[in-house]
TrEMBL record:
Entry keyword set: Lipid metabolism, Methyltransferase, S-adenosyl-L-methionine, Transferase
Annotated organism of origin: Streptacidiphilus alkalitolerans
Classification lineage: Bacteria, Bacillati, Actinomycetota, Actinomycetes, Kitasatosporales
Biased composition regions of type Low complexity, renumbered to the chain: 1-13
UniProt xrefs under SUPFAM superfamilies: S-adenosyl-L-methionine-dependent methyltransferases
Keyword check for Lipid metabolism: yes
Name by which UniProt lists this protein: Class I SAM-dependent methyltransferase
Keyword Zinc: no
Single Gene Ontology MF annotation: methyltransferase activity
């Protein structure tokens, strides 16, 4: 981890903190989780801010022994934030903002009987967590993204490998048999709500892939480029249509498993899995597809990414992307902020807005966004299924060598992401991109 940590506090500890000390995270592996930073002034500010947030969002903040931090009791049914080690919690949040909030959860200093309800309440209005009159304090609580995470060709491979090369066996524990690590599209009820269950997930992933391939016009004889292989399911579906596919990944573990799955399916002659940065790809393709890859590129490299799409797209071709998006104003407000997700889960990433995609295309390419469809509620349900399966198989995760800090980290990551979609703060969209002035009949 890259953030410096100060010396531990010498203040009086609660019993919960003393118990936590006996099970302290490995300081070599988790230096900033194992060490509580110290700043009395910032801790006092964090306590005052939490009282304010709890009042405005109707949160129940419980201290050890059941006492409430709230000066006014919350309404019935309020989401619960249960502080096991409040002193450590406020010092972490005061020193590190939302990074400290996440590290405090990893350190078991807070929890909630309904984590998703709590995180969803916080995600509904992130811009108001700090009151307007106190926004100047943000510079205390926010760090800048480290240079080593920027999406240069040298850094991009390391960023990708830090997540996707954790272990194929780990991902297999909570993904469905397709090994698809992106939003599914479930059938919907009469109100448009997704009908999601584990039994329906595999078919829902195929429905998502087939919609994207249809959007790109993939058919027999199509030359297809996929940027971001995953574990190969989209390439398999495209090859089954009679297309020839070049698919790019920076993850050696993904490459190995994808090649094995493709060979087992009998499509090795139609699919080439390249360990290759998107900037280095050659050739011309009738269809370019990419699922939740642009989020890892970083804003400084969006021009290079979309210019690559323009360069390799054959005349009359189509680009179909699946992308997680956020509101444009929030993207602008957070683009320079170093987040807990960037520190521990996806180094170097930034979720784009639809406006940012359109602006980048217009400024750097001859391509234009010509169609889009969002289905964020389906991602919330996909994440719920992954999270439930991940937590249910905690013992198997541990047997792979992932400790309790890692398991809480991933529980928070999956829950945090789910809450983003449930609150409407995040969306996932399939985007159709075509060349300006070309006719693209469907």
């Amino acid at each position: 981890m890259t953030q410096p940590s100060t010396r531990p506090s010498t203040r009086t500890s609660t019993r919960a903190e003393q118990r936590s000390a006996r099970h302290r995270p490995d300081p070599q592996r988790w230096p900033d989780v194992a060490t509580v930073p110290t700043s009395a002034v910032r801790a006092l500010v964090a306590r005052a801010l939490l009282r304010s947030v709890a009042r405005r969002l109707n949160l129940r903040v419980e201290l050890p022994g059941g006492a409430l931090l709230n000066r006014t009791p919350p309404l019935d049914g309020a989401p619960v934030l249960r502080l096991a080690a409040p002193d450590a919690f406020f010092h972490r949040v005061g020193s590190g903002g939302l990074i400290g909030f996440g590290e405090s959860y990893q350190a078991e200093e807070w929890d909630s009987p309904d984590l998703i309800a709590l995180l969803t309440a916080l995600a509904r209005s992130p811009q108001t967590l700090v009151p307007p009159r106190l926004q100047w304090l943000r510079r205390w609580f926010t760090a800048r993204q480290p240079l080593e995470q920027l999406g240069t060709p040298e850094n991009a491979r390391r960023n990708i490998q830090s997540h996707y090369d954790l272990s194929n066996d780990l991902f297999a524990l909570f993904l469905d048999p397709t090994m698809t690590y992106s939003s599914a599209v479930f059938p919907s009820d009469s109100h448009g709500e997704p009908l999601a269950s584990w039994e329906l997930l595999e078919r829902a992933q195929h429905r998502k892939i087939d919609r994207l391939l249809d959007l790109a016009g993939v058919r027999r004889g199509s030359r297809v480029l996929e940027i971001g292989t995953g574990w190969g399911e989209l390439a398999l579906r495209a090859a089954a249509r009679g297309a020839s596919v070049v698919t790019l990944t920076l993850s050696e573990e993904q490459q190995q498993l994808a090649e094995r799955r493709i060979a087992d399916a009998g499509f090795a002659d139609r699919v080439e899995v390249r360990l290759c940065d998107y900037r280095s790809v050659t050739g011309r393709y009738d269809a370019v597809v990419s699922v939740e890859m642009v989020e890892a590129v970083g804003r400084a490299y969006w021009p290079a990414y979309f210019s690559t799409l323009d360069r390799v797209l054959a005349p009359g071709g189509r680009v179909a992307l699946q992308a997680i998006t956020m509101p444009h104003d929030r993207m602008l407000a957070s683009e320079q902020t170093f987040t807990w997700i960037q520190k521990y889960i996806f180094p170097g990433g930034l979720l784009p807005s639809v406006e940012a995609v359109e602006q980048t295309l217009a400024a750097h390419t001859g391509l234009r966004l010509t169609g889009r469809q969002g289905y964020g509620r389906h991602y919330a349900e996909t994440l719920r299924l992954w999270r439930e399966r991940f937590t249910a198989r905690a013992a198997e995760v541990e047997s792979l060598g992932f400790d309790g800090v890692f398991r809480r980290m991933w529980t928070l990551y999956l829950g945090y992401s789910e809450a983003g979609f449930r609150s409407g703060y995040l969306d996932v969209q399939q985007l159709l991109i075509t060349r300006l002035g070309e006719d693209h009949p469907r």
